[in-house]
Amino acid sequence: MLNLLAIVYKQYFKNYYRSRSFYLMLILVVIISFMMTYLTFRYHNAIPAFIGGGVYSSLSLTLKARVFNYLWAFGLSNFPVFASVFFGSPSISSEVESNTAFHIFPLPISRYTLLIGKYLAALSVTVILITFYMTVQVLVIDYVFNIGPVVQFYYSYIMAVLFVVAIMAFTFMISSIFTKNLYAYITVFVIYFLIFNSMTLVFQILYNMDASFLLSSASGMVGRVYIDINPSTLLGGGSLSPATFPEIMVSVLVMSLYTAISLAVAVVMFERMEAAS
């Protein structure tokens, strides 16, 4: 089974990194990296607007670096969603829409192996793009502040990868429900940017609490490991101290649950999919 999984993974990985979607995402990463580089060089001696006042001038060099690391993480915040939509949304639905299911379903490879191989391939190309962005982040921060990767950077990288793992699994699940790529694309965007954001507002306004069980809230920990400010909330306040360990663990748990449940549903739906549907 592992040999078959490796073959499937290798084939789909080549398909992904040779695709137009990959180069489109790469261009997007380069643009975001350029913008964040400009922001860091241009304003590293000025105060970010969300801190206010003259407080910035009294911060230590290490804390200043963490503030800009947070800004880099915030610039990355929605990229995994777009990458998962391009790589994950058509992952299963396209097999029916493009009629490739007629060719791959009769192969002596289990659908579970096909799905996991394709999932790992999509995950890999996205992590490569994330790693490229965060490598540029390290180089720029080190050049401007003469400070190498702080411990929070490694936490942020782990949380970013976990977010990619979770959102990719979620998009695979959505893709397994539909037989048209367009429906899968739209559904992921609507759920993540509309439904999740609406639920976040409802919980903030009615219950004065952060909906930490939402994937969109958990993903905020990519930046909050540097400074505990969540711009997506209306609760106000925030701290220049990093998020606490229990808060980080809650986000890890939420993203792990989304991954496990989404992949389980995707496998079940893919097993029941018919090539003629």
Question: Please, could you describe this protein's structure?
Answer:
The structure is a single chain. With 277 residues, the chain is mostly helical. The radius of gyration is 20 Å and the shape is globular. The protein has helices at 2-17, 20-43, 61-76, 79-88, 90-97, 101-104, 111-145, 151-177, 181-207, 215-219, 221-224, 245-272. The longest helix has 35 residues, at 111-145. The mean pLDDT is 85. It has one domain (2-272). Helices cover 74% and strands 0% of the residues. The chain starts with a helix and ends in a 5-residue tail after the last helix. It has twelve helices and no strands.
Notable traits:
277 residues; mainly alpha; 0% strand; globular
In summary, what is this structure?
The chain is mainly α. The protein contains twelve helices and no strands.
Share of helix among residues? Answer: over 70%
Please give the count of helices: 12
The SSE order reads: HHHHHHHHHHHH
Q: Supply the helix-strand structural class.
A: mainly alpha
The whole-angstrom Rg is: 20 Å
**Silhouette:** globular
**What is the straight-line distance between the termini?**
28 Å
SSE blueprint and pairings:
Layout: H1 2-17, H2 20-43, H3 61-76, H4 79-88, H5 90-97, H6 101-104, H7 111-145, H8 151-177, H9 181-207, H10 215-219, H11 221-224, H12 245-272
Helix pairs in contact: 1-7, 2-3, 2-4, 2-7, 3-7, 4-7, 4-8, 5-8, 5-9, 7-8, 8-9, 8-12
